[in-house]
Design brief:
319 residues, globular, mainly alpha, 3-stranded mixed β-sheet, single chain
Amino acid sequence: MNKHNLTVLNEFILMGITDRPELQAPLFGFFLIVYVVSVMGNLGLIILTMIDSRLHTPMYFFLRHLAFTDLGYSTAVGPKMLTNFIVGQHTISYNWCASQLAFFCIFIVSEIFILSTMAYDCYVAICNPLLYTVIMSSRVCQMLVVIPYVYSVFLSLLMTIKIFISSFCGYNVIRHFYCDSLPLISLICSNTYDIKLIILAFSGFNLVLSLLTILVSYMMILVAILKMNSAEGRLKAFSTCGSHLTVVVVFYGTLFFMYVNPKSSHSFDTDKMASVFYTMVIPMLNPTIYSLRNKEVKNAVGRTWKVCSNILLKINCRL
């Protein structure tokens, strides 16, 4: 495109989920409920795993950070998406668009590697139970979450800076409901080969490394379970990793649907629905899955509720 067609953009226009006016109010109500439940569920998990001493184990340490990343990337997208349902102008400022992209990438990349770390934790718990506390020491657990955070910040800054130092054309409509990398790249007039190569290389690396860790961990877990003689031992092993396996299947299943399925076989609206699912619905489902399938979490909720009830009763008595 000619140089005179280049322009300095101050804002972008988000197309949103739908352009049908009659659906704006119902979708706003639905996604408001989804977002509120997601925030309450993930905040609840974070607080519960911090205050209950019985949940001060590596498994719940990683679960706390999974809830934190769920809360992070849903909040990077959710409030702006909800605002666009009730305002006529679906605009987002240049700087906020860059910030939204950066924070979304930080949290989504961190989640990918925390999920793989949790798979490794399940493997150690089932295959090396006697050495579990030695292998999964406090220092090791901290390093296993710090490294993904540092890496995701580096990758996010690299990608965001590369995109936003490029020259955009006059057309500023983003065909999405949030500032994602690929829709933004389509608006760039300058050469995008380097940016696309960076995204492709790191996306491939992230997916292969995390998925390989999960697959190898669960293969080793399956072998260990098959070698167990007692049905009770097998049931306990399955219950240890059942919630995590459910979360992994839902999360990676959505990603594969979006990026592996050929573009010709599904519409752009289908892509947006899949994006809505993993940006809004999955962060709501994760705490629900861990709460419903985990007796320790349910018992911790019961203990916390009892303590809070006793405190409220004492306050009422004093009043």
